[in-house]
Amino acid sequence: MTIVRVIFGQTAIMFLIMLIGFLCFRVGLVDESGSQQISNIVIYISNPALLLNSFIGNLKASQMLDGLWCLIILIVMMLVTIAFAKLFFRKPEQMLIRFA
């Protein structure tokens, strides 16, 4: 139940921030280019930083090790599928299948 409360609280804060941004745009404090720049900052800097912050504080060593193993397995699987595609789909008309 506490998770729902936290999610609801964070969503409410996000909507308040969006409302402030909308009002600033309507009043004329921020123009179209400023709005785009703020969006870029939020998308490319703030959101990734918040994601990293939320994971770093709560991870245990065993979870980090599990994540590392998942990353290694993912990399191996990607390399195997790339090699498989290059080996079996060589014709130009099969390039879409190879990409997929």
Q: What keyword list fits this structure?
A:
100 residues; 4 helices
Task: Explain this structure.
This protein has 100 residues and is mainly α. It is built from 4 helices and no strands. The protein is flat. The mean pLDDT is 81.
Question: Quick summary of this structure?
Answer:
The protein is mainly alpha-helical and 100 residues long.
Count of helical segments? 4
Helix content: over 70%
Rg result = 22 Å
Listing every helix as H and every strand as E from the N terminus to the C terminus, the arrangement reads HHHH
Number of DSSP-assigned strands: 0
Query: What summary fits the major beta sheet?
Result: none
Give the averaged pLDDT, no decimals. Answer: 81
Relative strand content: under 5%
- Residue stretches low in confidence (pLDDT < 50, at least 5 long) are none
Q: Gap between N and C termini, in Å?
A: 42 Å
Assembly level: single chain
Which geometry do the CA atoms define?
A: flat
Structural class: mainly alpha
Helix/strand layout:
Blueprint (H helix, E strand, L loop, with lengths): L1 H26 L4 H27 L2 H28 L6 H5 L1
